[in-house]
Amino acid sequence: xxxxxxxxxxxxxxxxxxxxxxxxxxxxxxxxxxxxxxxxxxxxxxxxxxxxxxxxxxxxxxxxxxxxxxxxxxxxxxxxxxxxxxxxxxxxxxxxxxxxxxxxxxxxxxxxxxxxxxxxxxxxxxxxxxxxxxxxxxxxxxxxxxxxxxxxxxxxxxxxxxxxxxxxxxxxxxxxxxxxxxxxxxxxxxxxxxxxxxxxxxxxxxxxxxxxxxxxxxxxxxxxxxxxxxxxxxxxxxxxxxxxxxxxxxx
Length: 251
Prior knowledge:
alpha/beta, Rossmann fold, 8 helices, 17% strand
């Protein structure tokens, strides 16, 4: 069911070839938007193959694929300028791209720290910095943070630090971009049933589930629903906020 109308809007969702990002992009396109499906070109080419398979399910011309590593500032700047050249600008930016490399700090390798910070935090900074240049006045930025960034979760020092940084960045940008009537908000999901959930040990997932009052993990569409609402005209007085999507789970 289409609840919102984004006809005429151009939306870019980073990391949108699978999982939460794919669900967000699907909902936007179903609601009339022109979608930019983004992922990075991995060595095996699996990301772009997944992206190409998704595009075949959309109406012709409604979705374009862009490949760029969010850690690479120059690549993101080039992508944003290409979007402006081809579409005239951007209306909605959703920062979803992220990775997970859980380990206690004693066991965490330096590369595991840096790769998560560079992807999940620096990558969002790059997209916001260069995305803000092409966002039309009255546009929307929504970033996918995490409940880990609000409360901290055992074994996620890298992930929690990155997501807490995204929350801080969101609050600053909400003030900096307010003069252009661009709202900037974040979503803080709990455990979402995607392929990334497989990185969490089964016994840990079972323990999490016991603590969720609604009795289930989030589905990608639960997150997408909130992203779309924060991208509507009706949400135009909401900015600098963090919305937990946890099923009542308080870590």
